[in-house]
Amino acid sequence: MKKILKKKTKFNYIQSCGTYNTEILVSVGTNYKELLACAKRLKLAKKNIKALEDDKEEILPLMERVACFMNLPTGSILWIKEYEDEWTFYEYLIHEIFHAVYLMLGQDQRMMKEDEAMAYQLEFLFREIRRKLQNHFK
Fold first, then answer.
1. What is the pLDDT of residues 26-61, one digit of tens each?
2. Distance in angstroms (rounded) separating the CA atoms of residues 75 and 90
């Protein structure tokens, strides 16, 4: 008898940003309560967890979208409603990763005029996140 495998719908992990000390919590398929529990389980900084709790009313409308990027005091969250291995999904993904790079390098590192560094960071994060999602959901 064949064993029926349940389709994976959720995935949470901390994405390194390479040479920059910022961490991104990547969360797929979670609601607000699960996202907060995941942030605690993965030991995000207490400042970030407090910001998630304090900003609940601002975060809930963002989670009605396909994907969103949330900037936190010492990190960020890339939240995705559901994974699909299709170009439209990757267009949303790269759009949200751009927000991360813009804030991380442009504002936090004051590298707004360093477009080549920003482009390399965008490429790095897109490749890393895409591969992890594809490997997890195959």
1. 999 999 999 999 999 999 999 999 999 999 999 999
2. 22
In angstroms, the CA 114 to CA 43 distance is: 32
Q: Which residue has the tokens 């304090």?
A: 54
User: Is residue 61 a part of any domain in this protein?
Assistant: yes
Q: Which domain holds residue 51?
A: 11-137
Q: Give the count of beta carbons closer than 10 Å to the beta carbon of residue 4.
A: 6
Measuring CA to CA, which residue among 7, 56, 24 is closest to residue 121?
A: 24
Cβ(56)–Cβ(84) below 8 Å? no
CB count in 10 Å sphere of residue 65: 12
State the total domains in the chain. 1
* Assigned domain for 121 exists: yes
The dihedral over CA atoms of 30, 36, 38, 43, expressed in degrees to the nearest 10, equals 160
